[in-house]
Amino acid sequence: MREHVAKVRHSTQWHRPLSTALLLLLVSWLAACGTTSKVNYRNGRYYSARDMARMKATARSRGAAPATTKSKVKTSTAAGKSKTVARRPTGKALPANVPAQLAAVIETARSYQGTPYKYGGTSRLGMDCSGLLHESFAAINLNIPRSSNEQAVWGEPIKPQDLRPGDLVFFGASPGSSTITHVGMVTEASPESVQFIHSSSSLGVIENALETDYYLSRFIKAVRPRL
Length: 227
Prior knowledge:
- It contains six helices and twelve strands.
- By secondary structure, the chain is an alpha+beta fold.
- α3 packs across α4 (129-138).
- The chain starts with a helix and ends with a strand.
């Protein structure tokens, strides 16, 4: 009897490590089965889902059109430190009949695209609507009035249907207002559309269409600058 019990105990002790090994093997197998769906095979090797996501993101970035990217320029702050500011691509090429001086002014204004709005600002770190025009005309060494009200009388009044690149357009704060609070400069003019560049209080320096309801309802006057 004692001999039989000893055999049973010996058999149980012998099978215990075997059972533990089988259990570990089973857990490992199940874990492997659970992760096979997250492994991808490409170019003769396996990649995790995270690696695949990174590879796809890299492929998308390489295929992006260069025209949608932003270039960067370095500007100087008051403390003398340089700061990198995004510069967006310019608009359409100007017509050949635009005078060279006005073309330089328009291209200078376009180089500020993406600059945030800042009341009283005149740099790439931030500028307001009249500051944008003041700095743009400074590119041809022309010192124009600083405020939009003064700029509104600096030139010859013209009709909206006669607008051309380089003309200044003025707006009120609300539809039907006669008080000038905003100014922009025409960059493109055709029978279909008139585009102007300005420093929007919400979007910064940007080009918009004059014929949109928002700007057309606030339009007050237009002048042709004295050069």
